[in-house]
Design a protein that fits this description.
Chain lengths: 299, 235
Amino acid sequence: MIANILTNRIVNDIAGGTAQGVIIGLVALCLVLVWRATRVLNFAQGPMAMFVTYIGMTQMDHHANFWVAAAISVAVGFIFSALTEIVIVKPLYHKAEINPIVVMVGMFTLLEAVASAVWTNIPRYPTAPFSSINFQSEGNPTGLSPLSTFQIGAALAIMTLVAILFNYTSLGLKLRASALAPEVSKLLGIRVGRLLTLGWGIAGAVGAVAGVVISLNPGGLAPNMLDAMFILGFIAAAIGGLDSPLGALVSGIVIGVVMQLINDYWNSNYADMVAVVLLVVVLMLRPQGIFTKNSTRRV
Amino acid sequence: MISISHLSVAYGAIVALDDVSIEAPTGAITAVLGANGAGKTTLLRTISGLVKPRSGSITANGHALIGERPDTIARLGIAHVPEGRGVIAEFTVEENLRLGALGAKTNVTAGLEEQYTLFPVLKERRKQYAAQLSGGERQMLALGRAMIANPQILLLDEPSLGLAPLVTQDIMNTIKTLCANSGLTVILVEQNAKSALKISDYAAVLHVGKSIAVRPAAEVAADESLRSYYLGMAE
Ligand SMILES: Nc1ncnc2c1ncn2[C@@H]1O[C@H](COP(=O)(O)OP(=O)(O)OP(=O)(O)O)[C@@H](O)[C@H]1O
Ligand SMILES: [Mg+2]
């Protein structure tokens, strides 16, 4: 009975889709964190995560162990993203004529070009510490492998940490205040500029986690490895509501599962299209996203 | 003590303050009166570092403020309750208060307790979102959030805005008590001259960007010739 459930086709699709979906959710979370902090849609999020994933994971070529390489990616992801905010985004805050989006698109192109120059376009396959062969139940495959289980666990752990940081700590209160009401926060003595930089740094670290996990998947580590994921993450963020971290996670999982079901039961070529249709429908019905409260701004 | 001298501020071609000099003595309430567009808000925003002046100087307790960042100025002990109160609607009452203590790096627990004693209504509503408070309660929250920082100087921008006369009176009395109990220096910007003059020690009048001498509040109240300058007066 249990074995039947564990190897049931739909259940397997849901499990496999969730493993993909949490990563979409992580990418969406990065976008949401940056949007909440500075009202910038960071179109370079994908390549930034790709770039720092390379920096960390290529350390494995020099005999670093996977965890050390992953930690380097995350740390560099934090620093790189925070520096981007200081060097590129902050100077643009007061220049209405230069849209940060245009600059971020430029950065997108630049980072992918530099990555293919330095590391070539041939994918690399970092050795994962977990097997990607699905668990078996009475001789039949289930929907999860040790790797996808790790993937779900890591993503949920990151989400939980971010949620605790933002909702239950003093630092989180200052981060939220700086994003919601920068001027009032300054009047209260909060170092808003620093906290917005920190918000970008956290987003960069989360993006690096997504990058590391994706590099363990069949596509491996490649300069354009995050392009498709980024588009799905953007769709998830827009569906969930750009202001809602929880919305990012839930919509990410829903998109992952729906796409997996379409791949399996219909035609994999339609999966991306369906995600876009989903986005258009949600934006028509609820332009602010599903999880955003009809916002009461500060008074 | 806060002393503003020869302060001029312009927004592009619009001159908002023109050679303004005002002194607010320690431990007293100094009202700054003036009609719409007189430059009252600009004055407070310049003190707080949100607006950069063209010329002039501002010193508070011996610190030169011009050129300092707003958050630095706040941490020098200058609390500013902005026009419209600046309460964060998406935060609970307690989160708003905590934020005030965190910004000023004062003790959160002790500060909350103190403000809850001063404003029992805030304690009752501490878990509610600020969006759900009435105008008077929001003003109390804004005051509590300013006071939790243990400031030496308090800048208030039209605390009576949008409040019923009885609530205004209540808020004004609270301000008076705060000042009397803690030796606080207050600059009270108001269009509601009558309510403000009642609790103030000194008063200055701003008229289209120019300041008219700071004098004891009772004198200003009695001076019929000044009245036309602060036409917002609620009779
Ligand atoms: N950000 C701004 N940009 C351009 N002009 C401004 C700006 N803020 C204020 N002003 C102008 O500066 C002058 C003074 O404005 P200010 O807000 O300081 O007046 P106020 O005395 O506070 O008025 P009120 O009683 O209506 O609040 C006005 O002419 C106003 O239009
Ligand atoms: Mg004003």
